[in-house]
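2 proteins. here.
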Amino acid sequence: FWGDDYVFLHAAHATNASGAPWWSDFWPSSPPRFWRPLSQEGYWRWVDAVLGGSTHAAHIVSLVLHVLATLGVALFAFRLARACRWPHAGRIAAFAGAVYGALTLHLLPVHWAAAANNAMLTLFTTLLLAAWVSARHEAAGRLRPILLASLPVWLALALLSKESAALTPALMLVVAAFVAVRRLDRGELVAWLACIAVVALWLLLRARFTANTDASYELTLGSNVLRNAASFVAWLLNVPREAMRMAVAGERMQGLAWIAATALPMLAAWTIAGWRGRRLLTRRQWLCIGAFAVLAYAPYFLFARNSYEYYAAIAVILPVIVLARCV
């Protein structure tokens, strides 16, 4: 374990020892810094009670969650490819999943047990987007209402895992525009408004329960925006955070060599995808790719201090799928 892992594990052990019911994590009596009852308090209580606080078992679970999140990306890619009528949808899905799963932005979440929330966020978000695309463009009969009804459920699970899921309704509209320009029908509009209602309820509960006083997570406008924007470009180029830290903190040549070794192959892949994509994608779709990435990363541009590569876990999903389509 490392860092916050010990804090969460000790707190979970004390809560389990006190005999507190499991639902108490969802309705805390004292304000936590983050209200993530599914991926943090509840998850660590499960690690303590079921896994016995085993480091080895916790890291296996983190790896399994990463694999599930990667499969979620592949499923979303498959549904998106089918909806867009791209050839070889299965091949695109497999390639997108493989590329996404291998990105360096997952290094820290896979090795840091406390970052399991990131894989949960990705899993629930991709399941939601896959259901959204399927309901709009493929499903018929009884399956379509079930898919639409599942959207608020997946969103609730994502919100209980990490705060950035609040942007998911906006991402749903971007994905809808990427596939086809048409208005939402009545069922889709009701499902989307239900998602908005879930976000609104979550915001009220979060304001009631949390007391975040950490200056690292303050949203400010200043030089931090440029720094975070540069970091975002680095994450898209597959540059590890440690490589950037080395280049800035003193080991400059080694850090720059590491940055070049990771960024140049990814830059070549993006360049090839952009060149071939001129004929394969429309201008509207390219705009949607940019909008998706920027919207998904929007809160992190304003962070006063913290900047980690796994913040881009959702932002890279649609670009990676397009990369798989165009390369």
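next one coming up
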Amino acid sequence: SVNAVVLVIITSIFDVPFGVLADRWNRKYTLALGITALGIGSLIAGSSHSLLMYALGTAIYGIYLCMTNGTFQAITYDTLKEVDKEKLYAKHQGGSYALFMAGIAIASPAGGYMAAHFGYRSTYYWSAILCAVNLLLILSMHEPAFHKADATVSLQKHIGAASKLIFNNKTLAYLGSILLVTGMLRSSLNEYAGLYFIAIGFGAIGSGWANGGKWLFGAIGQYLASRLAKLFPFMIVAFLLAFAIMSSWRTPLGLVFFYLCTFSYGIILNEAQALVQDRVASDVRATIFSLINFGTSALMIPLGLAFGALAQHYSVFAAYQLFAVIGLLYFVVWLG
């Protein structure tokens, strides 16, 4: 849990500044710096011999998340808007993210086999090599001319304007709350999935396959999101209820509800982001998502510590039940 807290602290500190950087400087180079951070963080984590060094690798990984969260979505939307096809954002973003998650789905069981036969460090070193390839691809792309970076407005005014836009627009505030709460629950599935898989009886290879399934179902959800957009409210209900059931199911059958969570979240994330994109200007696009991510990260600091304490003194299921209660409380408020 300490490592997870390091991650959320870093994302809490840097999420908004790097979102502003993407809007005010250059999104292509922000992505390039982000993937460079991922490669460096992978090398440090793979070479670590202490918790402190591993935490450093995690912190740099957090920098990668901050530089890419919102930036990729913003550059995708603006690219489509430049050719008057922004209405296809949900479809293209869903397809792109589905490919990303499918790649992780393949890498997860592969990583399990690599860890079992060559050691856990080998997985980090291969990640660093793939980051170098990814960096070359990012540097070869062209940023849409539609986005005009403007650094004349002060940093405080830029963040303030984006914050007011969220709170003064009821639709954006509603969508932001959905992304914040479901994102928080989804973060627990990402950060502590390994503990859950172990708790229901899986070893290294089994956990690799189970984790691959998590990303695969998320990819399917993202791919189908544009086709199932009308089911958006239903998917929110499905996600919250499936999470609650999963938190109390202590056998491998709990994976059914675990995967329902990842599938429904793929649809929720895609549709909510598409609705937000349609309501904000290009100059604050990445900043808006960074502010929402900041809220999720800030909540995950105390909740991550609470998860670790509950998992250590009671069980992983008790820790997940804490998050389930929060989700159900939001569900009750949302119905009201």
